[in-house]
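I am still getting used to backbone structure tokens and would like to learn alongside you. To get us started, please write out a protein record for me. Start from the sequence, derive the backbone structure tokens from it, and show both lines together. Once you have written the record down, we can walk along the chain together:
***
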Amino acid sequence: MKDLKVGLIGYGFMGRTHSNAYQKVNHFFDVPFRPVLKTVCGLVEAEAKAFARQWGYQSWVTDWKKVIEDPEIDLVDICLPNFMHAQVAMAAAKAGKAILCEKPLALNSQQGQEMVDAVEKAKVANLVSFNYRRVPAVTLMKRLIDEGKLGKIFHYRANFLQDWTISADVPQGGMATWRLDVKAAGSGVTGDLLAHCIDTAIWHNGSIDTVCAMTETFVKERKHAETGKMEPVGIDDACTFFCRFGNGSLGNFESTRYARGHKALYTCEINGEHASIRWDLHDLHRLEWFDHRDEGRLRGWRSIHVTDHGGGHPYMDKWWVPGLQIGYAESFVHQLAEFLTAMDKGESCGPTFRDALVTQKVCDAVLLSAKEKRWVDVK
């Protein structure tokens, strides 16, 4: 087994989930690399030092360029605000490093294209962390669709609801609330939450060709955490859009941070000619399934507990005994296991930067549609 020395840039929420995956992957998956936590980079030295000691990184720095320049580091992991993804990723590609980047890919598709060009020119392994693809139930959905068990697809609907920004006292900007600052985030719920829904939908159901959207910013001004001044809010607090997929099916997507009582409700449902299937992040180990071909007296929605072994339920044979479930954190372990295996074979592992660029283009089309109040083709 070969060592893979990791440089993590960013030590927030995503930095913790990724670090947890590095620590766990070899305990549960037979992968060709052993992640070595070499360096963590963060703005505040005391916090970077504390993070390094807690998670087992050998060193810490406050300048991301030092991570890129370190010849020992093999993989650069980008867990930074969106506006920094491009410059760090392109520098890492130029240095010949493999790259794992948090979603969304970039601030916009133009910037995303530059990132794609950089990694493809350098021929470095690259992955964007749309981790919900690796939730076993969501992966099983993909398999059932690809096997044709739903038949022709008619509808795809998804929503992602939160409620953490309802108070006008929540600031924008800074290390904790950069997602509310348009300069740092690029967009609001569209790039943060709907990007997950869009990536999963394209993976499940193929290309999104045209969209019609509306957005709303409910709190028009917020105090900026860095300046202390009241400033206009430029991100979308809520977004709803309709779309047409390339296969002729219709899509309905909704996301908001103003759904009181919902902390992270991500659901998706697919209706096909023969069957329907739906999933809920709050009950992430279960799939609900309806098959019209069942005998009439037995026909109805059933709940599938996705914990079985034998290959039928993705990833689960690597964990505990059937019937015992896993959770959100394990999706990052699955993602990493797939990435490391593909790297060793010289193969790509989706979603690549190019895959994520497709999602970025849909997000851009959604925002343009909402701004101009018209249908927009995804280009």
Remarks:
- The first helix runs from residue 13 to 28.
